[in-house]
Amino acid sequence: METKLTEETRVESDLIGAREIPAAALYGVQTLRGIENFPISKFHLNEYPLFINGLAITKMAAAMANYELGLLTEEQKDAIVQACQEILNGEHHEQFPVDMIQGGAGTTTNMNANEVIANRALEIMGHKRGEYQYCSPNDHVNCSQSTNDAYPTAIHIGMYYENLRFLPYLESVIGAFRKKGEEFAHVIKMGRTQLEDAVPMTLGQTFNGFASILKDEILHLNQAAEDFLTVNMGATAIGTGICAEPGYAEKCVEALSRITGFHFKLSADLVGATSDTSCLVGYASALKRVAVKMNKICNDLRLLASGPRCGLGEINLPAMQPGSSIMPGKVNPVIPEVMNQICYKVIGNELCVTMSGEAAQMELNAMEPVMAQCCFESVDLMINGMETLRTRCIEGITANEEHCKMNVHHSIGVVTALNPVIGYKNSTKIAKEAMATGKSVYDLVLEHGILNKEELDTILSPENMLHPVKLDIQPRR
Pairing relation of β-strands 188-193 and 196-202? Predict the structure, then answer.
């Protein structure tokens, strides 16, 4: 690679030819070609800082390992490490403009990192940008590496950090539901199955249920993220380790662990690992589980708040904005609705990751860029959605307590509580008559003399319908 400097540009050459690069750019000719070749998604690398950090950590660890093996001078190693540390400190991220979706199995992204780090290292060493004879993107920053091990390792690191970033937001939503569960613990309402009246419960049980099903997903997310700590550094092109010296892989993984404080492990079979993207498939699936559950919860919130007069109307969602350009006074459940759409997108991203994961051919999966984009995007969407849902919806939910109580009183579903005492057949007769006449189950049982008032009040008391109980009443079947 050759470089010629002018006042506003420098000219860099690669095997394709010579191109002018903005003089102020830390990136080089291969990044420029990537920008031009892949104006695809408008999702750029510089929008995913933890992925950029993953690249910097990978290159820093490689430089440390290569120095130990005598492949870099101390000056080169120190300059590369400092450049990487600056990136980790949040500097130079604007120098990563390539599209996340690209051909070449991530080569454009890898070279973007190599060029930025090399040019910054040159400045640290007292040289000009593009004077690659002193510190080369390929020979020094990418020493002992291929895109096919450095790129997936950077993705693994970035996604491990993304999981750590995501969990507090999930836990905050869980906490918000728990708080509402406590607030609504005394509110009796009808439970529903298949949108039909079932049996009584508390609104608090509903919200605690939301919290519990989400809490279960923390374990699955962490288990999936654990796979990101296994990397294929040292595999180089296809897993055989060509162009890497003996001991490099082990030293590089040790350096990754020192830099991050996490326990990274080397893949047991580097050939197999170099074409295997199942850890991304696994994490996308774990995110999908969260999305499926969150989607159900948001559907329930919309149903419970429906109306306000001609729907269920058992809870009130905070009014966020006018709901119609033609219907005065209408307010829509816009926050659960946007969360629904986020969940659909995350579920769709998981399908993309799955299809891309099975698209590996021979010794490499060239579709990993879109897999990475989907995973990073899904975490971002879920974080933004959950924070919005918590602060602009869940925390402001109120209960229509009297309306909930009225629904229970008029429901035929309470007849289920009579089964153990009067039997299924008699309960069915009461339910059928209640539907036909409009009378309450309570009144019909007394009218037919099946139970006395004291017995009926005991059976139908909220406390006895909300959990398993032993009734001291003689069966009348």
Answer: antiparallel
**Is the N-terminal amide bond of 318 cis, ω within 30° of 0?**
no
Task: Report angle CA 64, 67, 73 to the nearest 5 degrees.
Answer: 125
**One of 324, 325, 427, 440 is an active-site residue; which one?**
324
Rounded mean pLDDT, 362-380: 97
CA-wise closest residue to 136 among 30, 46, 220, 284: 30
CATH superfamily name and code, 2-143: Fumarase/aspartase (N-terminal domain) (1.10.275.10)
The token pair at 316 is 């009130």
| 324 is a catalytic site residue | yes
From its phi and psi, is residue 126 left (phi > 0), alpha (psi between -120 and 50) or beta? left
Pairing mode, if any, of strands 188-193 and 17-22? unpaired
At 245 the pLDDT is 95
Report how far apart, in Å, the C-alpha atoms of 175 and of each of 169, 209, 429 are: 10, 12, 44
Q: What is the pLDDT of residues 177-204, one digit of tens each?
A: 999 999 999 999 999 999 998 889 999 9
**Residue 76, pLDDT above cutoff 60:** yes
Cβ atoms < 10 Å from Cβ of 96: 23
* Domain boundary assignment for the chain: 2-143, 155-228+263-401, 412-465
Class of domain 155-228+263-401: mainly alpha
Residue 371 pLDDT > 90, yes or no?
Answer: yes
Residues 6 or more apart in contact with residue 25 via CB below 8 angstroms: 31, 95, 119, 129
Report CA torsion sign: 43, 49, 54, 58: positive
pLDDT at residue 6 above 70? Answer: no
Q: Assign domain 412-465 to its CATH architecture.
A: Orthogonal Bundle (1.10)
pLDDT value at residue 477: 65
